[in-house]
UniProtKB/TrEMBL annotation, chains A, B, C, D:
GO terms for cellular component: cytosol. Gene3D superfamilies: Aldolase class I. Belongs to the DapA family. It comes from the Bacteria. This is 4-hydroxy-tetrahydrodipicolinate synthase. PANTHER family: 4-HYDROXY-2-OXOGLUTARATE ALDOLASE, MITOCHONDRIAL, DIHYDRODIPICOLINATE SYNTHASE.
Length: 293, 293, 293, 293
C-alpha cells in the first residue's frame, strides 16, 4: 500500500489580489493562518480556488513560498503545479519540492484534448523530475480532460503518484476507483456537494475551500465519519449542503471572497475576467451563512 | 409528514415468458414467492424489471392479480401502472387498487417530451381516481423524462402522492430532494450502484431487482445502515457492487434471467426484441456471482 | 442502387381527436386531403406527428386505412408501424402492406436500451414478414435509441430496408451516412431546422409536418435545391426557419394543432397527457405565422 | 453593416518546434509562405492550430511578428491573442495591432466558467484598448465556454467586435446567429466538417488548417459556393470530408504536422504533452491523403 500523507480536511486558500490585481502575499499569509488555526489537516495552495492558471510563473513561486513559510510544518502542504505544457509543470514541481512542499497536485490541462498516452507521459516526466509524491487530480469541469479509472490505475504504477483526487461530482466514479484499484487506494474527494457520499465510499480526505467559511462544520463531518456515526454525518452534512452547492454553482474564488467579506474578513480583489458576485447573489450567500451560525 | 408504506428492500420480480413469448403466470408466482421468502420488505410487480411497457393490458392485469394472490399480505405490494396515455394509466391504477395493491408506482413516460404542467395533470388525474398512495418515479434513462426536484415537490402537494423513487443515478439529486422537501420526505433509491450513497443520503428504501440473485447481501446493507454502522455498510456494499454495476450495464431483465439460470432457477424466456445475454456476458456474470458465494 | 420511392416533401398529418379524446377519422381524412392538395410528394400517417405510440391497435388500423382511402394513389404513402415489441411491429407492418401502403417507417423504440444485435433482429424479423420497403428511422429524442451510421449500414443489408430517415438534428450524421454508405444511399431528413443543411448534404427528401401550415415555403425550398440554386434555397429557408424552430421546441402535434386553429382550420383535440399550447405560446405562434403570409 | 475584412478561406499555420521544443521561427515563415502561395484569402497565426496557449509571451510576440513580415500585406492577417486573464489579452492585442495585424481573434478561455457579464467585460476591455477589429470566437471544445447567440449579439454592440467565428460543430447555431443577428452579420465557420453546411447557411468564410494539406480542394469549395453551384459544392465537399473528419478527430496540430511529413514538407516537432500521431493513425492519414491526389 502506498502511503497517504493527507487525510481529513485539506483546505484550499484563495489567492487574494490588491486593487491593481497584483497578488497580495501578505493577505494570502493571513488567510492561510486562519485555515491552519481552524483545524485543517492539510493546506493546498494554488488549487482551483487559488486560481493557479491565472498567475504568472513568478506569482506561483511567491505563493508557494509564502504558504510554506506560514504553515511552517504544522500540517502537510500540497502545492498545485498544473500547467498546460510538460516543461512548465516540471519547472513548478521542482520549485515546490525545493520550497519544501510535502506533495504536489497535478491536473492534466486541456486545450487540445490529450490521449491517455500523452497524459501518462506528462505525469511520468514530472514524476521522474521530483522525489515527493504526486496527487493526480481529475476535474473535467475545470481542466477539460476526464481521466477514466483505467487511466488512473495506470498512473498509480508510477512510483511517486500515490494519491487521486476525484472531482467529477459523480460518486459512482469513486466506487469504480475503489473497485478497480483496491481497498488501499488513497482517493480524495474534490466535489464539495459529494462530501458525505465520498466519505461513505471510502475517501481518505476532502479537498475543499469551505474551511475558509465554515471550518467547524467541515471538521465535524470528518469526525462523524471517523467515529463510524452515519446518522451524525448525515445530519452535519445536510446543515452545510446549501453552502456547498452555492460554492460550486457560483465558483469557488468568487464565493469564498464574498463570504469572507460577509464574515468581516479582508479578502482583497479578484483578477479579471473573474468578477465579484452580484448584489443578489451576495444577499443569497449572506442568508445561507446566517443559517449556519 | 406523509406516511411511507415501504422501507428497506423493495424487490422487483421479472415477468417471465414461455417459449412462445407469452407471459408465464405460474413461473411468475414461483419467482415472487422466492423474493418474499428471501426477506424482501416489499414486492413491486410490473416495474422496469418486469418489462411493464412490453405487456398488453390483459397481461398487466394478470400479473397484478397473480402478485397479490402470491404475496397474500405478507409484505406490502407496489404495483407498476405507468402508461403513455393518462386514460390507460387511470385504468390500470384503478385495477391495481381493486386487486388490493398497497400503492401504485407511476413513471411519466415520454414519446413527446411533457411539460411540467402536463406531468402534473397526468399525476393529478390518476390520483383523483384512486384512494391508495402513489410513488412518483423519476427515471430519465427508461422513461425519457427527467423530473426536477421542483416538479417533484409540486407533485407531493397532491394528497395521495406520498413517495418518490429517484433513479437518475446522481446522488446529488437525492441531496437536493431532501434539502428542498425536508427531512420527512419519503424518497427511495432506484439506482442499484447508488445503494450505499442513497442510504447515506437518507433514502427510506432501495427498489431493486438484485434480491432475485443476492437477497442476503441486499438485506445486510439495509441492516448495517439501520444499525448506524457505516463501516459495515461500506464493506457489504463493495462486495455486491460488481453485480449491481453489471445489472445496470446490461439491463435488468436480461441479467436477472441469466443469473437465475446460472443459479439453477427456472426463469423462462424474454420477449423480443429483448434478447438473452451473449456467451461472453454470461461467462462474466457467472464469474461475478461465483465471487459472492 | 436501391430504389427510393420517396423524394421531396413527405408530409406528416396529425391524428386529431374529438372532445372525448377518441380518434376523429373523418377530420383526419380532411387534413390528409389538404396535404395532398397542397403539393406534398408523399403522405406519412402515424409518424411522431401522428402520435402513433399513443394509439391502440384498432386506432392505428383505422388511421392507416383512412389514409389509404383518402390519398387513393395520388402520391405514395409511408405508414408508421413502430411498436415496442417485435410481435406488434410485425402485426402492424403486415396490416399496412395489406392496406396498400407503399412503404413502412420503423423507429426502434426503447424502454430498455437495445443492443445493435437486438435492433438488427427486430428489423430483420419485420422485413421478412412483408414485401414492401422499410424506411429505418433514427430519432433518439423520441425513440430513445441512437443508431450509428455503422448500424444503419448493417440494416441496409436487409433487402427491403431501402431508406433511412435521420432525425438527430446533427447534419454531421448525414455526412457520415453518405460517406459510409455511398452516394446512392437514400437518406431523408426528419429534423425540420436542418432542412437546408440536409438537402445540401444530399438528402433525397424532407419528412416534415410543416406542410400542414406552410406548404408553399416547404415546396419552394425543395425546388430551389432541385434547381441547384443555393442562394434561393438559403433565402427560402431563412424565411421559414422561425416556424421550424418553434415546431421542434414546443412539439409537433401541439404546434400543428394550434397553427391550424390560427389558420381557421378545424384540428380537433389532443390526447392527454399532451395538452394544447398555452396562451403565450399561441400568441408567439400567431406572430410567427403572420410574418409568413 | 459592419465591415468584414475576411472572406473565403482563412488559413491557420501550425507553430513548429525544433527538437528541443523551442519555437522554430524560420520554419514557421516557410509554412506561412506555402499558405499564401496556395491561394488562402487570409492568414491566422496563433489559432488553436498554432497552439497559442502553449506558448510563452515572448514566443507569441515572435510568431506574430514573423507572420506579419512573411505575409507582407499580400492577404489580411488575423492574429490570435486569447489569454486566460484580461490583462494578458489586452497586452497581446495591443502588440498585434502595433505589429500590423488586420484584426485579432479572441476566444474567451475558461478555467473557471465565466458569466455572460464577465465575458462581455473581457471583450469590452480589450476592444477599448485597440483600434483594429475583433473576431469573437466560440469554441467550447477547446476554450471551455459556450457563448450563446444572445451573448454574441451583445458582443457585436461593441464597436470593433465585427466578426464571429463559430466552432461548436452544430450548424443550427449558425442558423440561429443569422436569424438573431440579421443577414448582414459576418460569421465564419471554424468547424471543418461543417464547411459545406456553414457556407449553405451563409458563412462569409471558413477558418481552417486544411490548406496546409489540401488548399486546392478548400478553394474549390468556396468557389462553388460563390458561383451558386450547390451540386459542385456538394461534390467537392464530400471529396475532402474524410480528411476534415480525421483532422478534427485526432487534433489539428498533430494531423497537420503528420500530413506535411507525408507530403515531404518539413514540419518540425510538437511541444509536450502533445505528441505525434502513432503509426496506425499515420497510416490512416497516408491513405486518406493518397485518395485526394
Amino acid at each position: 500500500m502506498k502511503e497517504a500523507i493527507f487525510k481529513g480536511i485539506i483546505a484550499y486558500p484563495i489567492t487574494p489580489f490588491d486593487v491593481n490585481e497584483k497578488v497580495d502575499i501578505s493577505l494570502f499569509k493571513t488567510l492561510v493562518e486562519r485555515l491552519v488555526q481552524s483545524g485543517a489537516n492539510g493546506i493546498a495552495p494554488l488549487g482551483s480556488t487559488g486560481v493557479l492558471p491565472y498567475l504568472s510563473d513568478e506569482e506561483k513561486e511567491a505563493v508557494t513560498e509564502a504558504a510554506m513559510q506560514q504553515v511552517s510544518g504544522r500540517v502537510p502542504v500540497l502545492a498545485g503545479v498544473s500547467c498546460l505544457t510538460t516543461e512548465r509543470t516540471v519547472y513548478h514541481a521542482k520549485f515546490a519540492e525545493k520550497a519544501g512542499a510535502n506533495a504536489v497536485m497535478i491536473l492534466p490541462m486541456s486545450y487540445w484534448k490529450l490521449s491517455d498516452d500523452e497524459i501518462f507521459r506528462h505525469y511520468n516526466t514530472v514524476a521522474k523530475a521530483i522525489s515527493i509524491p504526486i496527487m493526480a487530480y481529475n476535474n473535467p469541469a475545470t481542466g477539460g480532460l476526464d481521466m477514466s479509472p483505467v487511466l488512473l490505475k495506470r498512473l498509480l504504477q508510477i512510483p511517486n503518484v500515490t494519491m487521486i483526487k476525484e472531482s467529477t461530482g459523480d460518486v459512482q466514479r469513486m466506487h469504480s476507483l475503489r473497485k478497480e484499484l483496491g481497498e488501499e487506494v488513497a482517493f480524495y474527494n474534490g466535489s464539495n456537494p459529494l462530501a458525505l457520499a465520498a466519505f461513505a465510499a471510502g475517501a481518505k480526505g476532502w479537498c475543499t475551500a469551505a474551511p475558509n467559511l465554515i471550518p467547524g462544520l467541515n471538521n465535524k463531518l470528518f469526525e462523524a465519519v471517523a467515529n463510524n456515526n452515519l446518522k451524525e454525518a448525515q445530519d452535519v452534512f445536510y446543515k452545510q449542503l446549501g453552502l456547498l452547492q452555492f460554492m460550486v454553482g457560483k465558483g469557488l474564488p468568487r464565493v469564498i471572497k464574498a463570504g469572507l467579506n460577509i464574515q468581516g474578513v479582508e479578502s482583497g480583489y479578484l483578477r479579471s475576467p473573474l468578477a465579484v458576485l452580484g448584489d443578489e447573489e451576495t444577499a443569497q450567500l449572506k442568508q445561507i451563512l446566517a443559517t449556519l451560525n
